[in-house]
Design goal:
The chain has about 280 residues and is of the alpha/beta class. It has two domains: about 200 residues, Rossmann fold, CATH 3.40.50; about 80 residues, no CATH class. About 30% of the residues lie in helices and about 20% in strands. The protein is built from eight helices and ten strands. Helix 2 runs parallel beside helix 4 and helix 3 packs across helix 4. It is globular and about 50 Å long. The structure holds adenosine-5'-triphosphate and magnesium ion (MG). The site of adenosine-5'-triphosphate has 16 residues, from strand 1, strand 2 and helix 1.
């Protein structure tokens, strides 16, 4: 198994007491597999990704990459987050090169000499369509271009696993579709083991080999669905396919299950007044 989480749970302790973010859960990601995590806001998806990346300790359980415990962040795991995380003072090319520079300074073989990575940086910038913007600064780019640069940066260290937390959440629908096509291209040509968090069920079905549907907080996996559409058939047009819509309805039904009105967000969304204490969202 490429990436495995066994009995991983998370309880945060803070001034307001304890928050159970994740119930103990098991997840096994095969080599080259693309798994999406969908679930209500606050159910622990980001927490799960942070734990898998070694950025946050689990309260119980263990994460293994190729059978080895993940104890901290490293070059084997590429990360991409929803918020803009490029360094504003570095050009696009310097941003993409940054993990290699870091690895070099840490004396890691993964990065090699800084010059050696130049070809890889160039090929990734070309892959994401930013070669002509290599000397631009993040503030000079659109949101979609920034996320393409972030994707190139996540891939530059040749990670064994890619973890993506709602990477396209802040983009408009059209840009988002372009990013999905870029990821589909990547999957077809450079199969890389990926855990991908999204709120968008269409996006999950379009990209994934499997979709894990999470419950309300504390998150646990309600169901894992196999998505078997041929890779060659994956494009925006697939979203209108009857079998696609059938799976989409299945996932939406799970998401809208018994806990439909439980969260503060859903109360607001469905216009319910918050008469009882809410479900304890951990933050404002
Ligand atoms: N550093 C932290 N300290 C305390 N509580 C936290 C911390 N990070 C997250 N939580 C709490 O853990 C729960 C899960 O949060 P998390 O960010 O993992 O949810 P999520 O599923 O990613 O939500 P969203 O879909 O809105 O991004 C929430 O109740 C949140 O308030
Ligand atoms: Mg999150």
């Amino acid at each position: 198994m490429k990436l495995s989480l066994r009995g991983v749970s998370k309880t945060y302790s803070g001034r307001r007491g304890e928050t159970d973010a994740l119930a103990p859960l098991d997840m096994a990601v095969r080599e080259g597999e693309f798994i999406s995590l969908v679930g209500p806001s606050g159910c622990g998806k980001s927490t799960l990704l942070h734990i898998a990346a070694g950025l946050e300790p689990a309260t119980s359980g263990a994460v293994e990459l190729d059978g080895e415990r993940v104890l901290g962040p490293g070059a084997e795991i590429g990360l991409m987050f929803q918020q803009q995380t490029l360094f504003p003072w570095l050009s696009v090319r310097e941003n993409v090169r940054f993990p290699l520079t870091l690895a070099h300074h840490r004396g890691r073989a993964a990065g090699g000499a800084p010059g050696r990575g130049a070809a890889r940086v160039e090929s990734l910038l070309r892959l994401v369509g930013l070669w002509d913007f290599r000397d631009s600064y993040p503030a000079e780019l659109s949101g979609g271009m920034q996320q393409r640069a972030a994707l190139a940066r996540a891939l530059v260290g040749k990670p064994e696993v890619l973890l993506m937390d709602e990477p396209f959440g802040a983009l408009d629908a059209q840009t988002r579709e372009q990013m999905q096509e870029l990821v589909l291209h990547l999957i077809q040509h450079h199969r890389i083991t990926t855990l991908f968090v999204t709120h968008d069920v269409d996006e999950a079905l379009l990209l994934s080999d499997r979709v894990a549907v999470f419950s309300e907080r504390p998150g646990r996996v309600l169901a894992t669905l196999d998505v078997t559409f041929a890779r060659a058939a994956r494009s925006s047009a697939l979203k209108l396919d009857e079998a696609f819509l059938h799976q989409k309805r299945e996932i939406l039904a799970l998401l809208r299950g018994r806990d439909r009105f439980e969260t503060q967000r859903d109360r607001l969304l469905f216009g319910l007044t918050n008469t009882q204490s809410n479900s304890g969202e951990g933050g404002p």
